[in-house]
């Protein structure tokens, strides 16, 4: 039964276009969604062109169950016109309208909401069981979020109405189904899919050019390759979802959730990769690292879970806020905090490894990796802080672009740092330094196995713990 309910939600909650069935109650208020409309400035006195449209369709039958009353003072100051009716209240995002109703939602009477609403649309089925209403939106000052609330004010639900509300930005061309806060989402995901696919193919080609065993023998490059492929496939899933959304205003939530899950996995692999560069494979194999390993893996899994749940919450459960995007609610803030904790651990481990390192080449390598960590882990929290100073309808767009750009640039830089030619040069530099310092070849466990490359000497029977170089945080196969 739970599976059936979940599949029903996947079908009936995808996209902004909202539809469902109103409660079988005589009195209720139900918030059903919001949409950000475009605007178009015109000279003073000129007629305002339509920038958007709203279409409301209900099917059902409702009868009045409350006689009309009157009050000498608030809330009606006379006849209570809302009594015994079913209404669709539409509010804009001004403080005196939508923001006030949001703060007092569930505490206001129907009459109070009717006076605060920009539109108070009475739902009357007359002699039929269908109600249809269409209206064009004009706006010449700025983009606005519009909120939609159904309110039953003492009615009898003969047949609980099924509703469908569809809003469009008619000036946006093929993006007309998108709210202005979502403008460019489809193009961003197309760019991300192409970019990460090109990066994936580039890494594959570069490693094949160095020999058939180059990729197989380098564990970190394989992790990076899997991360790039997951980013590309996840972006492709989101492309398909938003392409369908552009045509019907609903999209495919199953693909959207799959895409978000893949992207969360790709980001987690990048975090794990940077931890491995700082701590080596001892992070996974050493008994001394057991507690730290459990904490870090728990944090990574929690980031993936919260990312998927954030996306489900955003689509399946309506939110009043005109400012909300993934990293502005409590679960998104937890994701940012967990990423910052992982960064601090990677930075601490990288610093310890850097201080123990004697090779100038290796020190430069760790400096570069530290720079990538700063770029990847700290740019997004900084952008989220700065986004609070931006207009509400552009915050999500800038944060999304910053996240995709940082992830792509971090993947590109790590691919450059872990390229086989550079790793081989670092191995040779470590070997030469060991010979000069000790007067004899150093042990295999003390030679950097850059990017998880195959051992330089064969036949050594070593445990994974012994394979970790004491003076190097880079992993050993």
UniProtKB/TrEMBL annotation:
Keyword Transmembrane listed: yes
Positions of the GPR180/TMEM145 transmembrane domain: 196-414
InterPro entries: GPR180/TMEM145 (IPR047831), GPR180/TMEM145_TM (IPR019336)
Species for this entry: Effrenium voratum
Start and end residues of each stretch annotated as Disordered: 455-477
The protein's name: GPR180/TMEM145 transmembrane domain-containing protein
Domain of life: Eukaryota
TM regions (residue ranges): 186-203, 223-245, 257-278, 290-309, 329-347, 367-390, 402-421
